[in-house]
Amino acid sequence: MIKNYPAIFHNEANGRYWVEFPDFAGGTQGDNLEEARRNAKEFLSGVLETYYIEKMPLPDPSNLDTLCTCDGHVEFVEV
């Protein structure tokens, strides 16, 4: 089963990124965009596995129009 959720990739002044998943508590980071994308996929995979194991209903993905991206951009992460 393939799932897509939006993630906000916040760009820091030093070139690093921190990633926020508005539909789940928590996020991840990376030294560059490529690493942040890999870590985001790993994070989302772990969260979805926990939801599945605990038999918790998955939230609907956030509407992209409502997400603040002042210091970065939004991408869908697919697992």
Itemize the secondary structure elements and their pairings:
Elements lengths: L3 E8 L5 E4 L6 E4 L2 H21 L18 E7 L1
Antiparallel strand pairs: 1-2, 1-4, 2-3
User: Which spans of ≥5 residues are poorly predicted at pLDDT below 50?
Assistant: none
Characterize the overall form: globular
How are helices and strands ordered from N to C? EEEHE
Structural domain count: 1
CATH topology: Double Stranded RNA Binding Domain
Strand content: 25-35%
What is the top-level CATH class? Alpha Beta
CATH architecture: 2-Layer Sandwich
What class do helices, strands and sheet pairing give? alpha+beta
Average pLDDT score = 95
- What distance lies between the first and last C-alpha atoms, to the nearest angstrom? 8 Å
User: Main sheet: which strands, in order across?
Assistant: 3-2-1-4
Number of strands: 4
Q: Characterize the biggest β-sheet.
A: 4 strands, antiparallel
Helix content: 25-40%
Number of continuous helical runs: 1
Radius of gyration: 12 Å
Structure write-up:
The chain has 79 residues and is of the alpha+beta class. It has a single domain (10-78), classed as 2-Layer Sandwich (Double Stranded RNA Binding Domain). Helix content is 27%, strand content 29%. The chain is built from 1 helix and 4 strands, in the order E-E-E-H-E. A hairpin with a 6-residue loop joins strand 2 and strand 3 (27-30). The model has no long low-confidence stretch (mean pLDDT 95).
